[in-house]
Amino acid sequence: GAYAFVWKCMERSTGRLIAVKGFKQAHEIPEIMRLAVREVQVLQMLKHPAIIPLIEAFKSKSGRVYMVFPFVESNAYQWFQEFPEGIPMPWLKLVVWQLLHALAYLHQRKVVHRDIKPGNILLSEGGGVKLCDFGFARTTHCGPRDAEDLTSYVVTRWYRAPEVLVGDRYGPACDIWSLGCTVAELATARPLFQGNSSAEQLWRIMRCFGPLTASQASCMSSNPLYTRVRVTTRGRTLRERLLGCDPDLFCLVESCLQLDPSDRPTARELLQSPYFS
After folding, report:
1. Residue 1 binned pLDDT confidence (cut-offs 50, 70, 90)
2. Buried b vs exposed e over 54-77: b needs ≥16 C-beta within 10 Å?
3. What is residue 39's three-state secondary structure?
4. What is the domain extent for residue 48?
5. What are the CA-CA distances from residue 266 to residues 54, 99, 103, 178, 261 (Å)?
6. What is 103-116 written as a DSSP string?
7. CATH number, domain at 10?
8. Any catalytic annotation for residue 115?
9. Domain end residue (candidates: 52, 70, 88)
């Protein structure tokens, strides 16, 4: 990624495979060091079967920062090579179930991941999901439905919630939006909204769902990035984009992709969805 690289290594004492994440410039740039330290601190407070565990973190003699994790072979992007039309439904249900448990755990502890996407979902040999890459994650003062002032420079663009795009206050509900985009992509092997810029991303969302909330529209109007964003005609609806999708899965995705974050269910509530019954 932009800040780090990952090596596949073998631990000499045990022979087990590990993944070593090294930060490119943490030893040179204080802001990157701050982000690295925050990631370590967040991971050290987490212990959940669907979250990648941090084995160790250390500095080299040169001051470079490294983090050590168990090695997991594949992420969801790689699954699409085997399943170009989307992940088979029984497997997908197991993946979504585990992801929701991970998010419910994080949000209960007032941690927002802020980068949910297929590339950050690892799958172990036994079918277990591991949510990884906590580089944007941080603790907040937010309960699952709360929001506060946080930076908008988070979340890979295609999975970024509208409140984050426009610079409005946000909280754990932004992870729920990202989850909805991710689950739709896992089901179809196609990203829902492929914007080439923040402005185009917002335009694509509005083309599908219509006008933003009053708070989002106010933030958008005062943001110079969006002065030229105009939606004159509606595009394909979410249902049209997910033709052939399991009806209960569609309802789950649709509930995640509400423009108003207060209308999105919490991860705990999504676990009660008919999709899992």
Report:
1. low
2. beebeeeeeebbbbbbebbeebbe
3. helix
4. 4-70
5. 26, 13, 9, 13, 10
6. HHHHHHTTEE----
7. 3.30.200.20
8. yes
9. 70
pLDDT value of position 228: 87
Give the total number of structural domains in the chain: 2
Average confidence (pLDDT) over 63-86: 90
Residue 227 is part of a domain; what is its CATH number? Answer: 1.10.510.10
Given this model, what pLDDT does residue 212 score? 95
State whether 151 and 87 are in the same domain.
Answer: yes
Q: Which of 115, 133, 168, 175 is catalytic?
A: 115
43 lies in the same domain as 140: no
Query: What values do phi and psi take at 215, rounded to 5?
Result: -65, -45
The span from the CA of 106 to the CA of 266, in Å, is 11
How many other C-beta atoms lie within 10 A of the C-beta of residue 8? Answer: 10
Q: Record the pTM.
A: 0.94
Residue 91, Cα to own-chain centre: how many angstroms? 19
Give the model confidence (pLDDT) of 164-186 as tens digits.
999 999 999 999 999 999 999 99
Average of per-residue pLDDT values in the chain: 92
- Arithmetic mean of pLDDT, 217-245: 91
Are residues 144 and 45 located together in one domain of the fold? no
Judgement on whether residues 147 and 104 belong to the same structural domain of the protein:
yes
C-alpha dist (Å) from residue 60 to 56, 65, 66: 13, 7, 8
19 and 86 both lie in a single domain: no
